[in-house]
Amino acid sequence: MAAPGHRGSPVAVLTVAAILLVSLCLRPAAAQQGEDKGGEEETQRQQRYNFRFVRHARDAPLVSHFNYIVVGGGTAGCPLAATLSEHSRVLLLERGGYPYGNRNVSSEYHFADALADTSPRSPAQRFVSEDGVVNARARVLGGGSCLNAGFYTRASGEYVRAAGWDARLVNASYRWVEKELVFRPDVPKWQCALREGLLQAGVTPDNGYTFDHVPGTKIGGTIFDSTGRRHTAADFLRAANPRRLTVFLHATVSQILFRHREGSAKPVAYGVVFADPMGVQHRVYLRGGGKSEVILAAGTLGSPQLLMLSGVGPRGQLEKHGIRAVMDHPMVGQGVADNPMNSVFVPSPVPVTLSLVQIVGVTRFGSFIEGVSGSQFGIPLHARGVRRRSHTFGMFSPMTGQLGTLPPSERTPEAMRRAADVMRGLDRRAFRGGFILEKILGPLSTGHIELRSTDPRANPAVTFNYFKDPKDVERCVRGIETIERVVRSRAFSRFTYANATAMDAAFDRAKLANFLNLLPRHPRDTRPLQQYCRDTVMTIWHYHGGCHVGPVVDQDYQVIGVEGLRVVDSSTFKYSPGTNPQATVMMLGR
After folding, report:
1. What is the pLDDT of residues 372-393, one digit of tens each?
2. Catalytic one among 213, 542, 544, 548?
3. Is 542 a catalytic residue?
4. Is the pLDDT of residue 1 over 60?
5. Core-most of 20, 74, 212, 471, by most CB within 10 Å?
């Protein structure tokens, strides 16, 4: 606004706007040096988080008693256990291991390596939905916060009201999470260009830096600090009472124990059974008297799976696997959804700094636009002491199970291997650039989870029914159209080739297009965008549902029809909150 008595000239207004934009998009040199600090800093971090109450499951007693048993030490389970330990004796059981000391978890520069690791000890357990889309679930203390791209944003006020939550308690819990874990990102030039391009493409207004979920373009928070080190939900355990909390790692829960209390028709949860890696069975019982509960925080796949393994679920499915029905609960495992994601790779004529999700465009038609960038798809060329050749090529590559150039039904392991082999032979200039992606609101299309076996370590069968609802397809089409406008914008011109001829002169575009969806699209790609959305669908790992509030749990997250049992995690969500759910899952745990 001009001073009184003076009219602000357009030049002055533009100058001020430019200064404000640059101030939001400066990237300190410290961020470029994150990988250089290497092992010494990681060792110090391990020592700082050497919680004496965290132990291996093999050291657990065969029988123990606690006030609360929390199953799943993930994004919800860690803040939940820390909070409960303020006043009660709590046991937290996590099937995975420790996140500290694993650079694939802790380092932004090796973010994709965790998703590409399919070994039994990987923090990411890969699964393939019945739709054919490769996905992953967390298997590590800290859960999905150890695997995700770090973006932090709250749910909208409308979402909070629809959930029936107390807004004051919600905001206080968000603030607790943010104080412990969240940072303001150092925004590099590529992300700044994405931000300006979104504004020029009509995703307005400019909301600056904010955690709030509001229409327009914004910079969100991140759980990566300025050195590129990830902070996870496991860090919340620093706030726990160490005398009241016990955590067992590599503890796979196979069953919730139920009994019938005299005078009550409802079955009552009174403990759990878990196995250590040697197969030894351990039993944990709830203490009698006062408040005592089993709380599932095992995630969208784990919580409904464990309910069914314990006899709470659709009777027909339980009987199919020889499981005695404790409670016929037909809606357990129903209403599962995964927000479909479609991404394009935009090759850049100039080197691009590594960045994960920092900017988001929240459209008014139900699509969210984000981006990730980096030389060599995530291994920055400028970092000293880092391998010169990337093995994973970033989060949207065949190594992480993402091969969007083939329809889901054709994404076989052999197709993934062939694509990876071709990628390794391409000129390095082909891998300069960034991915711009769109994820749709909701979604409206839903599916279900079914047991494959009675093995709690095995993945259940999951069907998401991507794009079954035509409104989801419409949102995707409009999202892709918005990305096309961003790429054509003046703001983004520095990071795109002037024309196809210039791109072809730099690298073999035709080969790159075999395993990456490029913008501009190849002239021979004449598919309608509706079909393009269906053919190129991938996951952004925001799946949810299976234990919805209403059909499965009540407003206090108690499992309907049984006593002493709750579910507190993303399986209770009907829709994914905000653009990225981790903030709300952490808040819910708190």
Report:
1. 998 555 444 334 444 444 456 6
2. 542
3. yes
4. no
5. 74
